[in-house]
Amino acid sequence: MQEFRYRQAKTVEGAVRAGGTYLAGGTTLVDLMKLNVLQPATVIDVNPLPLAQLEALPGGGLRIGAMVRNSDLANHPVVKQQYAVLSEALLSGASPQLRNMATTGGNLLQKTRCYYYRDTNYACNKRQPGSGCSAIDGYNRIHAVLGGSADCVATHPSDMAVAMMALEATVHTQGPQGERAIALKDFYLLPGTTPDKENVLEPGELITHVTLPPLQSGTRSHYLKLRDRAQYEFALASAAVVVRLRGRHIERVRIALGGVATRPWRSPEAERALEGREATMENFRKAADAAMTGAKPLKYNAFKVELAKRALVRALETTTQTERAG
Amino acid sequence: MSTSIIGAAVNRIDGPLKVSGAAQYAVDYTLENLAYGVGVPSTVANARVVRVDAGEAEHMPGVLAVLYHGNTPPLYRPAEQLEHSRAGEIRPPFEDDQVYYYGQFVALVIASTLEQAQAAADRVRVQYDVRKPVVLLSEAAKPQGPPRVHSSRGDAAGAFASAAVTIDETYTIPVEVHNPMEMHATIAHWQGDKLTLCVTTQGVMNYQKVLAEVMGVPLENVRVISPFCGSGFGGKLFPWPESMLAALGAQHVKRPVRVQVPRSMMFTTVGNRPLTRQRMRIGATADGKLVSIRHDVVQPMSMVDEYVEYCTGVTTMLYECPNVETRQDLVRLNVGTPTPMRGPGIVPGLFPLESALDELAVKLEMDPIALRLKNYAETDPSSNLPWSSKHLRECCQTGAERFGWAKRNPKIGSMRQGDEILGWGMSTATWHAGRGGATVRVRLNADGTARASCATQDIGTGTYTIFAQVVSDRTGIVLDKVQVVLGDSTLPPGPTSGGSTTTATVLPAIAKATDQAVQRLLEAALITPGSPFFTEDRASPPKLAMTNGWVHEVDKSWNSGVPFDEILIARRLAALEGEATTGPDMAAQEHYSFHSFGAQFMEVAWDPGIARLRVTRGLTVIDAGRIINRKAGSNQILGAVVMGIGMAMFEEAIYDPRTGKPINNNFADYLVATNADVPKLECIFVEYPDYHLNEYGARGIGEIGLAGVAPALTMAIHHATGVRVRTLPFRMEDVLGGERATIV
Question: What CATH number does the domain located at A220-320 have?
């Protein structure tokens, strides 16, 4: 770890003005600082900021402060009842100790678990632009089959963000230019030739909260995460489904995939393949095929294409079971 | 002899110290003026060190020294085979300018605080002349020369060629790493030319010897202390480079120095279970009688030392088969030196043997237990000696009954539970039973307590408690009045904790030393004025005994006598001691073959729709003689089963062929079983004391619980899915229909 200046933010405006790297739960930042992967000159501790409120909005929907801890969010009664997909995603991630620290804002900015990003002795375009990608010709079982480029195939690690993608969340920020709201689907960037640029945040811009739109009654949701062991492992493939049925007819569905893509992967292709159709296994499989049409497997992760399809089909099956309460 | 305490489910006497944090582990020792050493590990696997640039590091705050090859006098090599000492790696650190594997110590930074040392270690720049490393077996040079292991009885090749039914398959087990919770650590403290080492080890006596040899000082100048060990699993049998560097560094800076290996280096620098590729050829008659077994093993070792993973020994003794040939070859790779890991040889050797046997059972459409019993070895076929005690048949039958094996439908995918498909598998387990030498001192104190001491150590298995149990058993002194002192080379010499031999080794010495102390006490009772048993009549003194801690006449009740401490007080003695040395019964070893046996049953549940496979049930039945502490004993078996679940389902060090780095060198990426991966497990002991081994009839139980788990699980996976996993660990890829891309 390299020496750094530590500042505590007292107000959001002060934090933004101070200019530095924000420290929330520290579960990503401190870990990567210890590995010398991140070497901020100044760390701004945003823990004192009043951003830990979780409130139901008057017209429906939820406002989640950036400093709401993953455990608190996952176990909040409104989240458990109305946004099951989000609660399930959070509880499938990390360990209880980490979830007690990790925050909503921090989780959105979580860094990849790519082995090569985490080791400064390897070339990595995300860590050091222009140095090359060690994963494309390396051991890439955990890497992305969707959204990769010749410069980066690192998987986005967050479960929470996948659920929020399917819930059509909005990220609210405050930056040097003032406040703005960014639809989550527009928040993450594909790696392209600039994998170091992971999202649309400008320097100094701070996530203050996330809002979830209300779900129409009868909407069901579910997060399914597949991995080698039962706990404490990143997804090899995951699926978030938010769906509303009329009888066996799919009126509206939002689908996002995790563990297989360079960003939390919303799949309009799968959604289009389902909306207006019957909830049948055949249609689920068609949707899964549509979701993975553009997949580009690497040497060690070809299985993820099939695994992601299975995750999605099962998540759709689970959310559309007739006996399941609405 | 009272039997209540032997075989009871006894809580560990050191348990309160551990759960309260009072137990002192190596790095818990606080020494005045302690300095901290942090290693600079190589980031390449095959290179010459051109230059170590320590200029910046040396000038950072708190830095006392930066040591590396070229600026420090070389350490001596351990004498190893000449002196019965053994280091983890025979090449001492900094011996030359070569890098042989990724993670090798290239330099050591010593500073006044850990943080200062870590910061400076990050700033040591090492310039390498890099050569291409060879870390994959597929890239290794072919083995040269004669095999390292070769055995043959009958004509295995001929019998295989003419066998009615044959199996010929190759199995691969990747590198696994021990990764005990407590990382390797040493505090080295010189006082003149005397060296004290606080370490975490499975063998303080060997440690003392190796460090004396490496530092070039007489044996008596080195004291090694390891009262507690956060587990070893074989990885702490021998000293590794970090301890030598701590001693070297402490000598250099003239302060005590602590070096702890970081978790990342636990994967590279302190041993591993080597990869093995094993071809198994089995021939049988149409009704399942084995006629030929051939077992060929190729195994990598490091560039700097040799280690043979003796996988084929078990093949020669487990089943009755007239024609058996085994062969093992070694190849060299740029990886860290392998070392024994829980169940060395037998655990990796049983996986292909028991797997191939199941493949044979499937081919013969024969029940796997019936196949094993058909080829049951009534005597040891490798030596033709009778077994000292073998009850494997009962293990299989008891296990089958308890597990419900009769309900197993052998048809693949035929057993369902809800939406999931169940698979059931079983395997034989075995482990050789050994016994070595030990000296134990037992002291009966005038305050009514007893104390037992020995240099052997408790590596988390319950050795402290077993000492107390035996003393209590022979004196009647209650457990909490028996103090046990272990893990210090100044104590009477005791064995290394390895090979599941400690209990069998120390029991007779504790018993004999206790009896000697009691004998002295009873003699004192007769000759001490003031003792109720004092008699002038030396010709026919009363016969005395000690029961419940009281001295009394043999033919009277115990409470007719006096507490034993009253005798010592009357004689104005602080204590009376006994000391005894016991060793293996060499005659028994010539007449019997000593092994423990077991049968292990595992269940998996498979959700084919999402390729999810979880272990759902596990039963182990063990024949290991008499169990001394039922609680610690079950704990050993069940803990080993958890490790077996890791071996079968999760564990694999993955080496990047470009750098030689195990890229998953942390607990997030190197998967071990979590609690959620471990179902309810059960352990049953069939107890037949093995009095040929020792008077308590106890054999070791530290390793056997791991022996059959992986083959039982891959058999269960085959039963559920139809997929035979021959390359560990199981991966979801195996049941997704495509090819599994492995890197070995």
Answer: 3.30.390.50
